[in-house]
Amino acid sequence: MPHFSVAALLLTAVLSLISVQARALDVVATIQPIKLLVAEITDGVVEPKLLLPANTSPHDFQLKPSQRRTIQQADVIFWIGPDMEMALNKPLAQLDDHTLLVTLAEGALDSEKLHQEHDEHEAHEEHEAHQDHDEHKENDAHDEEHDHDEHEAHKEHAEHEENDHDDHAQEAASHEHGHDHEHGEDLHLWLDPHEGERIAKLVAETLSQADPNNRPKYQQNLAEFLTDLEDLDKQLKQRLKPLSGKGYFVFHDAYNRFEAHYGLSHLGAITISPERSPGAKHAAEIRERLIKNEAVCVFSEPQFPSPLVSNLIEGTDVGSGVLDPMGGQIAQGPKGYLRFLEQMAADFEACLSQSNN
Q1: Which of 101, 148, 162, 238 is the most buried (most CB within 10 A)?
Q2: Distance of CA 176 to CAs 21, 55, 171, Å?
């Protein structure tokens, strides 16, 4: 598939788009979270079309004839990129010159680096707190440090077993669906408010060049969105800060960017690939940790209904919750992306605020 970049495509597509200025641009977003972001910028100008149903996972799908027509008729298409919506690679490679394809993964912040920076910050805070504790209760601090080391050793051992387990189906799934975490990179970009800001700016600039008559409105919408996003981000950081030490399991490893931004960290994922059930050994390891009360919550996802979570927590004091990385229940309308972030935070908060002691 040819490599698409915004700069190169703008040079060839903007001229062809001039001919459609008598009508509104036909703007398409491949998945729901991206549509929510694009709609923040196009509000009052045009309603972007959604290619995949809101509750559809981008990991695995087949295009219908009507969806193929939507692609072919679009003036501008926003997608994450070839490593996320893999089923779109071939149809998007066949687009003609009148369609501007914008790959949002280009220029994304490195998710692995974000987690490293967060871990370093947490380690620094823990070190300072430990030093202060030593000044008052040296013996107690020594005991706590010893317990902490044993806990970390146990955690590292469990994670090592998890990574090295012999479930071949999981390994095959990891190879097949590892596109969104290739080389440690998490392509669920929309879960990071910083990425939301970057994408919004890219959308505004792209549409301003493709549709200069509406540039003032696009830029006004962008300015309002950035202000609202900054305010909400501050509120969510305050709300989620008390939950930073809570242990939990997620259904699949999709939340790294949200977690790194808000100081959360899951203990593990139930499955590597959301389309496949975990191996028996992996499930047993999680079950053992739940019995030991290492976690307060296990999260499922609405795109993949399964009795697995209820089976894992049965007979324990661990709670369950639902996280929707696709924002399938977010109603269309103004401030949709902000409502999506608010809902994600609320879902974390509702389950992690409970105690299993």
Answers
A1: 101
A2: 42, 22, 9
Hunting for tokens 């229940």 — which residue is that? 329
Angle at 277 between CA 276 and CA 280, to 5 degrees: 140
Residue 342 lies in a domain: yes
For the segment 323-357, what is each residue's pLDDT rounded down to a tens digit? 999 999 998 888 999 999 999 999 999 999 986 55
CA angle 265, 226, 323 (to 5 degrees): 35
* pLDDT for 15 beyond 70: no
Please report which residue ranges of the chain form alpha helices under DSSP H. 6-17, 32-42, 65-73, 89-93, 111-136, 138-164, 168-177, 193-210, 215-240, 256-262, 280-291, 308-313, 336-352
Total number of residues shown for the chain: 357
Q: How many domains does the chain have?
A: 2
Q: Give the other-Cβ count within 10 Å of 350's Cβ.
A: 13
pLDDT band at 55 (very low <50, low <70, confident <90, very high): confident
Q: Are 264 and 349 in contact (CB under 8 A)?
A: no
Question: What DSSP character marks residue 71?
Answer: H
Which residues span the domain enclosing 101? 6-109+188-233
pTM of the model: 0.77
Q: How far apart are CA 357 and CA 175, in angstroms?
A: 38
Q: Is residue 281 part of a domain?
A: yes
* Cα within 13 Å of Cα(347), Cβ side: 23
Q: Clarify whether residues 34 and 173 are in a common domain.
A: no
Report the alpha-carbon distance of residue 1 to residue 17 in Å, rounded.
23
**CA angle 292-293-297, nearest 5°?**
135
Tokens of 130: 């430990």
CATH code: domain of residue 255: 3.40.50.1980
SS3 of 77, please? strand
**What is the rounded CA–CA span in Å between residue 281 and residue 12?**
53
Measured between alpha carbons, how far is 230 from 251 in angstroms, rounded to an integer?
A: 29
| Partners of residue 321 on adjacent β-strands | 299
